[in-house]
Amino acid sequence: MPPYQRALRSHYDGHWEGQPVSRHTRKQSIHQIGADFSVLEFPPSAVRTMWTYATCGMSSLQMERPIELHLFSAIHCEQLVDLLTAVAHYHQTEQPLALGHTVNLGIPWQAGSTCSYGLISLPYLDGPALEEMLLDQKRVSCYWLLPITKAERDFKKRYGLEALEEKFDEASFDYLSANRRSVV
Question: Which pTM does this prediction carry?
Answer without folding.
Answer: 0.94
